[in-house]
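SAMPLE LOG
Freezer: B-3
Tube label: C17
Construct: single chain, 391 aa
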Amino acid sequence: MSISLGQLLQTMVQNGGSDLHVASNSPPMIRVRGDMAKLNVPPLTPAEVEQMIMATLTDAQRAEIIKDKNLDYSFKASGIGIFRVNIFYQRHGMSFVMRVLTESPPEIDKLNLPAICKTACSYSNGLVLVTGPTGSGKSTTLAAMLNYINQTTKGHILTLEDPIEFQHESKMGMVNQRALGAHFPTFASAMKAALREDPDVILIGEMRDAETVALALKAAETGHLVFSTLHTNSASKTIDRIINTFPAEEQPQIRTVLSETLKVVIAQRLIPTADKKRRIGMHDILVNTSAVGNLIREGKTFQLVSAMQTGKKDGMQVFEQVLMEAVKRGEVTGEDAWEHAGDKAMFAQWAPKPELPPGYVPGPATSQAAAGSPSTGQTSASLPGAPKKIA
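STRUCTURE (predicted):
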């Protein structure tokens, strides 16, 4: 084999990469500040890829990947770091992705997380959600919050993960970390057992189905502080996602329970800085005040954004407003802001301009249409270079 896994991981870490992508019949690539970069390595054969990754597995994991064609686990490369790994098969053979994890849990202050993160750690019970797209740093934010609790509270922290990402050693309290597959068969079964394990804080890696959501709400309702994640892009949409997980006849009851148990929703995204040298986290934050609780209970989630806009004193903020402030300070370009904004109207001046063919000169009909002239009976779809209308 021309290159080893250790050399690939070392290259990724030295270049500030977040993910290593290795695929059969392709050169390895790394993700750096959100973009994929090809390494100067020849394409790896299916046999080379399989030999490279199989050496990191136990006998049980080898049997699992052969049986299920997919596997998640954590891997420690001596002298390099800890990585979250997913192995899968594609049309050319075996492939895998390794994400860099820090060996010690992150700190809230060092990540410059909003103040509400420490506030959320102080609750004695309730549901705290960190949401966002894949790769937005949800796991890192949650790890920092659990680390803060571990350093400041004498309690029992229980995590249910897939796989274990950040390793927490017991500090003021006790930490027990369990991994899907290795330590429990399903999140729902682990949640049922968790209620008998005397936890003060429960982390659920992801609420994947209605049963797990219901058990998380029950745990939050019965005196536990529950943390979890969802793949939603805004705090307000997170409420709808949870409610819509359940059948219509159960939704009124779920709205009531959610209005009483939810504490905070932190939706985050990573945005490239103007100099493109790093990415910064920006947050959409919903805090469950009495007014917010009433909106959830009454099914008026479309009004939540308005409540967030006026709830700054309670720690709430709207992602687009934070993003616009970053643009005004010069931290983020308007073009990147437009690309990442959910509500793009605020950033319309930075929207991409349509490219015209080289040498294109608008004809009379086009000029009239652009100027708002009376119709000539000819539709825009029939003009030269114009897109066809789709009904």
